[in-house]
Structures are given as structure tokens and as C-alpha cells.
Design a protein that fits this description.
119 residues, 29% strand, globular
Length: 119
């Protein structure tokens, strides 16, 4: 069984429940710490590339939507996501790359837009 956890739900999730760390929030923070190699002041979550998180048994399933189908940074981002999640969880990680729907600049978070304007 796969449990889907949306970005807005996880961003608003408390960091702990009854004194226990919230694994969902920890994983989203880890994924959100990964920056785009071509735009290092913006995280992949802010850019909308880190588009979905799900729990399937003992495995985290992270969906990435590259900015375009031939993006050369995709493999680097996958490696960085695996390393970031491994730093906070012993669970295995499966990366799913999806091209549909295609990434859109509409997915860029307001904070990332601000950072781009300041750069």
C-alpha cells in the first residue's frame, strides 16, 4: 500500500508528534535541502522538481519532474536526493522520474521567484 503525502500537507506538518520526530516532515526537509545544480540558490522543492512523496511499506518513493526531458542535472539531483534522505532515514528510497505532466514554471514557489529576482 502506498501512502501519498502532498507538499503542502507535509510543509505544514508539525515537526514532532507526542515528542517523536515526524518522519514525513523530516523527509520533505531532506528533499528540500537539495539544490538545483544549475541554480544552487534554489532547492528542488522550491523549483517544483521535487513534486511528490509517498510511503510504500518500508520505502520512500520520491517523484522528480525535471524541468525538461533531457535535463543533464537529473542524475545528479537523484544522487543528491538519495544522500539527503539517507542522512535522516534508514528506509530505502525509490526515485521516480516523471515527464507527465511536464514541469511548468508555474510550479516555482514564490520564495524561489524572489531569490531568482535578487540574483
Amino acid at each position: 500500500m502506498t501512502e501519498r503525502i502532498g507538499q503542502s500537507e507535509s510543509r505544514d506538518a508539525p515537526s514532532s508528534r507526542a515528542g517523536k520526530p515526524d518522519p514525513i516532515a523530516s523527509i520533505w526537509r531532506a528533499v528540500g535541502s537539495v539544490v538545483d545544480p544549475e541554480i544552487p540558490m534554489i532547492s528542488i522543492v522550491e523549483l517544483g522538481i521535487g513534486s511528490d512523496l509517498a510511503r510504500a511499506g518500508d520505502q520512500w518513493v520520491i517523484t522528480l519532474t525535471p524541468t525538461y526531458s533531457g535535463c543533464p542535472a537529473t542524475r545528479v539531483i537523484e544522487t543528491d536526493v538519495r544522500a539527503a534522505v539517507a542522512a535522516v532515514s534508514d528506509a530505502s528510497v525509490r526515485i521516480v522520474t516523471t515527464l507527465s505532466p511536464p514541469w511548468s514554471s508555474d510550479w516555482i514557489a514564490p520564495e524561489a521567484r524572489r531569490k531568482l529576482c535578487e540574483a
